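Thread: "does anyone have the structure for this chain?"

Original post by V.I.:
We have the sequence but no experimental structure in hand. Need at least a predicted one for the grant figures.
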Amino acid sequence: MTATELIHLSYDGNFQLETDAKVILCKVIQSNQDEPLPSDDVNDTTTLRVELQLDRTSMHPQGGGQPTDLGVIKSNIENDGAYTANIDKVTIDRASGIATHSGSVALSSSSDNNVAANELFPPNSSVKVTVDSANRQLLSECHTAGHVVDAAMARCDKLLPPTKGYHFLDGPYVEYKGSIDIKDREEFLSRLKEAYQQLINEDIHTQIQTLPVDEAEELCNRLAQNFNMKDFTSPSEENPSVRVVTVAGWNCPCGGTHVKSTGVLKERRWGVKGLRCKKGVVRVRYGPSEEE
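Reply from O.Q.:
Generated one for you, tokens below.
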């Protein structure tokens, strides 16, 4: 099987929430006929857990520090044979490049209880993939906000090699290899917060490009040797390339989704929340401040 085309990897695709696709494979994982029903549901319902592999998708698979997209996959059949899968997890096999969409299909008719996988979403049939827009917006903001931390660190002349980005909503942070002297931390944190807000107020536009490895190396490591490009390519690629995202003027190899500019982060008032230095690791926490 060939790799799944990931629509979000291009600049325009990063903002594309729908796409038409062809089914490569559909598997029924389990059936739950005893699932509790809402109080206003008077019909017998069977929920099938399914896995779908498509030729292309607009959904972002979980990885690179960013959670999975949510959404729906609906068969393009204009009759009673159309099915909808509510997708709650998208994963990708890095070796093959194949994305798997996991979710549930609700069958309201008892006659459908024994439906086969190839009847739900037959191979080569057409489907429409739709991303949950509200969830995507929030996750994209969170990922972009994490890259703004990198740019703010650079603006504060603290070019430490990044080691981890956690862009989940339950406490996002970015980690770097290095340390900050204990006597300097309070003053540095104040400067970092100020630099972060400056970058948001400057409303700097995001750029996304896919480059040959040597060009990506030169672009991302021109200030400091922060990235090993082998970590961002597949050994099976004949002519490997790297997707480079530029946020707030800071270039970084990245496979995630992003917002159009740093100014988008104003509404939820994203900012730096704290700083921790321990065992040669500097962790910068960040997040939104809607309720403050």
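V.I.: this helps a lot. The mean pLDDT is 88.
O.Q.: and Helices lie at 117-120, 133-155, 185-201, 213-220.
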